[in-house]
């Protein structure tokens, strides 16, 4: 039997939001079995400040994933932390944050993974449940295609294509395990093009962006003095983003997520399409490399 996990102790970090540029403090705390991932906006006290990490709570998908509750309280750019929680296997956690956007840290999930590893995980006396994909579910929009195929383990398959000599066509396939994620995916940083920076600032975005938290590309190549962490860091980061967006399903997905030119919009659309088609999935308990059916729970 595989059991649900939470943090062994609270862990704290601070930084600036990628788009807001605002400094924010974040505390990851242990949570009881079944709590799931819940964000609490500690800077808001006049209304409900709890925001559950769910696919149907997504309200923004431009250059990041934003979730919100019914009172309009939102948390932006959740995907890198969600990817860390998914990749390492954290089922239950309370994320206390005192601002509107998560800290971007170095632009990857690696700092969050390190924080989690530093305190460790503890198992609940409750089995871990997962969403098993039973049949293909695909969505298409604006030349992008993504969806789920049946598989006995969580897998991510992503390909990208950019008309830039430093990127071009890249593909990435990985099994979602703690070791593979931590070693091969978590360190891939977000990236952007220098020519777009002024337009993003004018739109109120990327105010906290810098070469300290993103791979920056000019017309000829990578501007960052240290270069890339991986030769294909760009597609690995897209795979990281996808994993974070997929974890808003509320449980690991036992299936192969395949996406061509993915972004936050199509990642969320694919998750919603899967969950909306109740004939395409079922809830199972996780037992090592195998699964055992349990009662379907849609609520």
What do you see in this structure?
The protein has 6 helices and 20 strands. By secondary structure, the chain is α+β, with helices and mostly antiparallel strands. 45% of the residues are buried. Helix 1 packs across helix 2, helix 1 (79-88) packs across helix 5 (233-246) and helix 5 (233-246) runs parallel beside helix 6 (264-276). 20% of the residues lie in helices and 35% in strands. The chain has helices at residues 79-88, 110-119, 178-185, 197-202, 233-246, 264-276, and strands at 3-7, 11-16, 23-30, 37-41, 50-52, 58-60, 66-68, 74-75, 93-97, 121-127, 129-133, 137-141, 144-150, 155-162, 168-175, 191-193, 215-217, 253-260, 281-287, 290-293.
Structural class computed from helices and strand pairing = alpha+beta
What is the CA-atom radius of gyration, in angstroms?
18 Å
- Are there runs of 5+ residues with pLDDT below 50, and where? 289-299
Q: What is the approximate shape?
A: globular
Share of helical residues: 10-25%
Order of helices and strands: EEEEEEEEHEHEEEEEEHEHEHEHEE
End-to-end gap: 23 Å
Portion of residues in beta strands equals 35-45%
- The chain-level mean pLDDT equals 93
Number of strands: 20
| Tally of alpha and pi helices | 6
Largest sheet: 8 strands, mixed
What's the helix and strand layout?
Layout lengths: L2 E5 L3 E6 L6 E8 L6 E5 L8 E3 L5 E3 L5 E3 L5 E2 L3 H10 L4 E5 L12 H10 L1 E7 L1 E5 L3 E5 L2 E7 L4 E8 L5 E8 L2 H8 L5 E3 L3 H6 L12 E3 L15 H14 L6 E8 L3 H13 L4 E7 L2 E4 L6
Parallel strand pairs: 4-9, 11-18, 14-18, 16-17
Antiparallel strand pairs: 1-10, 2-3, 3-9, 4-5, 6-7, 7-8, 11-19, 12-13, 13-18, 14-15, 19-20
Helix pairs in contact: 1-2, 1-5, 5-6
């Amino acid at each position: 039997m595989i059991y649900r996990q939470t943090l062994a102790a609270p862990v704290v970090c601070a930084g600036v939001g990628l788009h807001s540029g605002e400094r924010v403090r974040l505390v990851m705390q242990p949570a009881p079995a079944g709590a799931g991932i819940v964000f609490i906006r500690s800077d808001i006290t006049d209304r409900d400040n709890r925001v559950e990490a769910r696919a149907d709570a997504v309200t923004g998908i431009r250059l990041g994933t934003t979730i919100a509750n019914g009172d309009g309280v939102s948390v932006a750019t959740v995907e890198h932390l969600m990817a860390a929680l998914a990749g390492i296997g954290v089922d239950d956690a309370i994320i206390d944050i005192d601002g509107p956007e998560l800290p971007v840290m170095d632009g990857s999930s690696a700092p969050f993974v390190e924080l989690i590893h530093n305190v460790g995980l503890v198992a609940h006396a409750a089995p871990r449940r997962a969403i098993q994909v039973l049949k293909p579910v695909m969505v298409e929009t604006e030349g992008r295609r993504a969806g789920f195929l049946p598989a006995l383990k969580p897998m991510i398959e992503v390909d990208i294509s950019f008309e830039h000599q430093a990127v071009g066509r890249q593909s990435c396939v990985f099994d979602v395990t703690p070791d593979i994620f931590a070693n091969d995916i978590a360190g891939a940083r977000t990236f952007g093009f220098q020519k777009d920076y002024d337009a993003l600032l004018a739109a109120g975005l990327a105010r906290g962006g810098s070469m300290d938290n993103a791979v920056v590309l000019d017309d000829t190549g990578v501007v960052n003095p240290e270069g890339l962490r991986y030769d294909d860091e760009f597609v690995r980061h897209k795979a990281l983003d996808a994993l974070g967006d997929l974890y808003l399903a509320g449980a690991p997905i036992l299936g192969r997520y395949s996406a061509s030119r993915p972004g936050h919009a199509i990642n969320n659309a694919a998750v919603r399409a899967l969950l909306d088609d109740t004939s395409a999935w079922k809830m199972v308990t996780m037992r090592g490399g195998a699964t055992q059916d349990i009662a379907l729970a849609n609520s």
